[in-house]
Design goal:
The protein is of the alpha+beta class. The chain contains 16 helices and 26 strands. A 9-stranded mixed β-sheet has the order 3-10-11-19-16-15-14-12-13, sandwiched between helices. A 5-stranded mixed β-sheet has the order 23-22-24-25-26, with helices on both faces. A 3-stranded antiparallel β-sheet has the order 4-9-8. The radius of gyration is 25 Å and the shape is globular. It starts with a helix and ends with a helix. The chain binds glycyl-adenosine-5'-phosphate. Glycyl-adenosine-5'-phosphate binds next to strand 11, strand 16, strand 19 and helix 12.
Length: 493
């Protein structure tokens, strides 16, 4: 398996993803996406929207502000509790996440422990500064939200939102009424979130600005049916139960129905999302054995949640949470009702109720890191490394290459490009270097098809279509290119 560092190197040399403000030596925890990276990111987000939003007529998308007033984040608990425990080295002054240091050294989760308890564990286990071996100071907490001043005269505090979810909760009432919805109803949002992470690391896996794709699925807790569950009930997922984590950590392969019947899953809504996510991530080229759901242990589960299931991807450095699935109950709506003094309950056939919520929360950058790693092919035979992205998220569907620039071949190629663009395809043009070099450049950024315009094209309007994965070439008539490429997008060619 390649490493994320290998992938990061390619991303840098091909301008796919690179440090923000690179000419000023960058700033830790921030990355910019270049043209290829942006195209992959947008296609990935569109595919997510098709799968989790547009395929349901009772899930609505919103686009909220990234800055939220303090009151919202006070009500949600972030102002008081969205903190990380940190410890500073007495000698070199470097700052470390205390819980991570302890987990690395002892293998034990210490989420939810107080500063005093963590200081005690550090002392007991002789944990020292990983940089210089110096002694660590006592633990204190560090606020993860980035603060800003909203008004020109000062005094109105705002924060860059740490999750997209809070706009959804504050919008719930308006969206429920204006869409004339009934429960169950979902509100989805894709957008940037910000966390002042103490130690950003692993390329785009832990950064300070990232995008989330979240759905808050509101339902009546007195009605445990889930109209979508039957369509996925037999889907098998990899699951690491709480029991297994206390013994050998092995994952089981189980249908979501079986997991629900055994009461591992708190409701069918969670089951529905786990099944959909497992299928979605496999279709992005991530092998099944590198995907698992981990049922969070009671001590790690947030106090408001009645069950958290993290979808984890296996990276070269270990398993990493990429989607958090949480049964957030009515915790958020209740808190906003109290702090904003508004009624957010709704009337159903069973009477008045504060809806409960199941939340799948996807990290865009972290998923893209997993996609890049698992689609990276180290290919000695071909002579260059390449990405085997599924066509629907590839940056371009095809490259168009005139064999030579002269004799009208470049003009013919440009005409074909124009037609394909009019049909809505993302197409890449390259006329420089040998055709072999152009195939290599196209493979290196994962373009599924290379279309070559040669002298026969001028005679009979056929082109050569080379398949990135098999390198096989076929002749396709120019007028059939659209249907051919649509087949590629559907995974048929
Ligand atoms: N609304 C729930 C929520 O935000 P979370 O587990 O804190 O839950 C959800 O975050 C997802 O967001 C994570 O699974 C991860 O993919 C992504 N994420 C969180 N912090 C991140 C960071 N610092 N860098 C990149 N992605 C991050």
């Amino acid at each position: 398996m390649a490493t994320l560092q290998d992938v990061q190197n390619v991303c840098l040399t091909r301008g796919i993803i690179y440090p923000t403000a690179e000419i000023y030596s960058g700033v830790s925890g921030f990355f910019d996406f270049g043209p290829v990276g942006t195209s992959i990111k947008h296609k990935f987000i569109d595919y997510w929207k098709e799968t989790f939003v547009k395929s349901h007529d009772n899930v609505f998308e919103i686009d909220g502000s990234t800055i939220l007033p303090e009151k919202v984040l006070k009500a949600s608990g972030h102002v008081d509790s969205f903190v990380d425990p940190i410890s500073q080295c007495k000698k070199c002054k470097s700052i470390h996440r205390a819980d991570h240091l302890i987990e690395e050294k002892t293998g034990k989760f210490v989420e939810g422990k107080s500063c005093e308890e963590l200081t005690e564990i550090i002392k007991k286990n002789n944990i020292i500064c990983p940089n210089c071996g110096g002694e660590l100071m006592g633990i204190r907490v560090f606020q993860l939200m980035l603060k800003t001043d909203i008004s020109p005269t000062g005094g109105q505090i705002g924060y860059l939102r740490p999750e997209t979810a809070q706009n959804i909760f504050t919008s719930f009432n308006r969206i429920y009424r204006t869409t004339r919805s009934k429960l169950p109803m979902g509100i989805a949002q894709v957008g940037h979130s910000f966390r002042n992470e103490i130690s950003p690391r692993n390329f785009i896996v832990r950064v300070r600005e990232f995008s989330q794709m979240e759905v808050e699925m509101f339902f009546d807790p007195r009605d445990d049916s889930c109209e979508w569950f039957d369509e996925v009930k037999d889907v098998k997922i990899n699951l690491v139960t709480r029991e297994a984590q206390q013994k050998n950590g092995k994952m089981i392969n189980t249908s979501v129905k079986e997991a629900f019947d055994k009461k591992i899953l708190p409701n069918k809504w969670i089951g529905y999302f786990l099944a959909k996510e497992f299928h979605f991530y496999k279709s992005l080229g991530i092998p099944e054995d590198c995907l698992r759901f981990r049922h969070m242990l009671p001590e790690e589960t947030p106090h408001y949640s009645k069950g958290n299931f993290d979808l984890e991807i296996k990276f070269d450095f270990g398993w990493k949470e990429t989607v958090g699935n949480s049964y957030r109950t009515d915790h958020d709506l209740k808190n906003h009702m109290k702090h904003a003094n508004v009624d957010l309950s709704v009337i159903t056939n069973n009477g008045k109720v504060i809806p409960h919520v199941v939340e799948p929360s996807f990290g865009v950058e972290r998923t893209i890191a997993g996609i890049l790693l698992h689609n990276f092919v180290e290919d000695k035979e071909r002579g260059w490394n390449w990405f085997k992205f599924p066509a629907k998220i590839a940056p371009y569907i095809c490259g168009v290459f005139p064999l030579v620039k002269k004799d009208g071949l470049a003009e013919k190629a440009k005409g074909i490009i124009e037609d394909l663009k009019k049909e809505g395809f993302d197409v890449f043009y390259d006329e420089s270097g040998s055709i072999g070099k152009r195939y290599a450049r196209s493979d290196e950024i994962g373009i599924p098809i290379a279309v070559t315009i040669d002298y026969d094209t001028l005679k009979d309007d056929t082109v050569t279509a080379r398949n990135r994965d098999s390198t096989k070439q076929i002749r396709v008539h120019e007028k059939d290119l659209r249907i051919f490429l649509e087949g590629v997008l559907r995974g048929l060619e």
